[in-house]
Amino acid sequence: MQNLVLEPQILSNSFSKIQTSGKIFHNLSPAELVEHALARKEGSLTSTGAFMADTGSFTGRSPKDRYIVSNELTENSVWWGDINIPISEEYFERILQKMVKYLEDKDLYTRDSFAGADTDYRMNLRVINTWAWHNLFCNNMFLRPNQEELKEFEPDFTIICAPGFEADPQEDGVKNPNFAIINLSKRMILIGGTGYAGEMKKGIFSVLNFILPYQKNVLSMHCSANLGEDGDTAIFFGLSGTGKTTLSADPKRYLIGDDEHGWTENSVFNFEGGCYAKVIDLSREKEPEIFDAIKFGAIVENTRFKKGTREIDFTDKSVTENTRTAYPIHHISNAVEPSIAGVPKNIFFLTADAFGVIPPISKLNKSQAMYHFISGYTAKVAGTEMGITEPKLTFSACFGAAFLPLHPTAYAKLFGEKMEKNEVNVWLINTGWTGGPYGIGSRMKLAYTRAMISAALEGKLDFAPFAKDPIFGFEVPKICPNVPSEVLSPRKTWNDPEGYDKQAKELALAFVKNFEKFREYASEDILSGAPKVS
Ligand code: ATP
Ligand code: MN
What we know:
- Mn(2+) binds at residues 202, 222, 259.
- Keywords: ATP-binding, Cytoplasm, Decarboxylase, Gluconeogenesis, Kinase, Lyase, Manganese, Metal-binding, Nucleotide-binding, Pyruvate, Transferase.
- This protein is α/β, with parallel strands linked by helices.
- The chain folds into three domains: 24-42 and 65-216, Phosphoenolpyruvate Carboxykinase, domain 1, CATH 3.40.449; 219-263 and 343-529, Alpha-Beta Complex (Phosphoenolpyruvate Carboxykinase, domain 3), CATH 3.90.228; 275-331, Phosphoenolpyruvate Carboxykinase, domain 2, CATH 2.170.8.
- The radius of gyration is 23 Å and the shape is globular.
- The chain starts with 8 loop residues before the first strand and ends in a 7-residue tail after the last helix.
- The site of adenosine-5'-triphosphate has 20 residues, from α6, β18 and α10.
């Protein structure tokens, strides 16, 4: 029998004290965390040096189990509904106390991190994990303070993530044992019953989506961003799986960030310090930057090995379609650090249209840009959210409604102001289906999408002939370097053009129907960006 050395330590913020008879490992380096994670059998080492872990029964976020505490601060500011589900302070306190009790004898991995590359808008995070690899995830995904910055570190926000702790739906005011609860006034996020690490990252994103627009007049955005040689910033909005991460990793441009950014008076800045990329069917040939980022320090989630080796089998979907890697941004060789750049010159709205209707690239005028920003059309594809196995038509306001605590019009208003003030080109990119709907057509070739985006960024479409889409009204280029012309016009890719017309009309009607709830907030100008359909 070994005697356990008890090291009672206290972690506290002004609202809770966490005391454990276990050990507290604070700010361990990636190498130490990997050692711990291996010793604790949390996963295994892959041939590239990356750490491979399973997230457990949750292989994606669980949006229906995400709550915001309803209190004085949030009661009249948060847009309550299916996305922002209220929970009371009493239930929050009860779950917090239960978690504190649960942690009493656990080894804890804690870490101090930043969210927000711009020091004017930075938030100090303290993360408390029970899994070592989760703490490595936070090291990779949040910004890493230097030694000097750690000395006087005071947390603004605390995340407690304990996958092994389950709530009791009978008495804790939650629907299920798993939960993510954001308390904006006590400045805490509690996560339990799920090992999906993305809940921590998207929890903080939701917090920033409250604080920045509401309290600081900064537009927070669900987008990736990169920078050209000439200092031109491009941002890529899009829902999960539409290509933000994939398309922002461009060898000809510098990466600012792959998922969450703020747009201030004069800059775009990354909230994060790393990337969280899908790896299903990843190949070095198609996505070399991401492939090569999967080295020591990186994490791969829910992947499997090729038989008899330690090589990752990126084709293996046996656990989930939503296999992922999380790596610090410096694993991408041409990343900008600190991740800040000027205001955007080009904005891309990425949509994975499962109906094969939206042209692969088109140019939007200001009204259309506003209309499509508010609409946020895509098809949800298998993976990131639990329960989605085939593409499903979705409108998600501002291309990120799931993470927006405020009413979408709050973000749309800021977006509109930015559009007025700055000269920007807005492009709609369909990274989804061509040649027919899902089931008949096929996904747009990544090489074509890349070529279209490059052409737009390099000004090569400036003098191309365009044709107006008869229903949606946007301008569609007839030619584009390195893309066969017939691909540019979706109707021509269908075997049955009447089928296309019917499908296009249906999609346009879905837009109109979805926009009904925003009509009262939208000006005539914005409404003129709607598709024309009767
Ligand atoms: P999330 O918000 O979940 O991080 P995301 O917008 O970053 O999602 P990606 O991780 O870039 O999405 O996923 C896009 C996936 O689609 C990748 O696996 C990519 O290889 C694949 N893909 C296939 N065809 C295309 C295309 N034409 N354009 C972009 N991505 C494509
Ligand atoms: Mn991404």
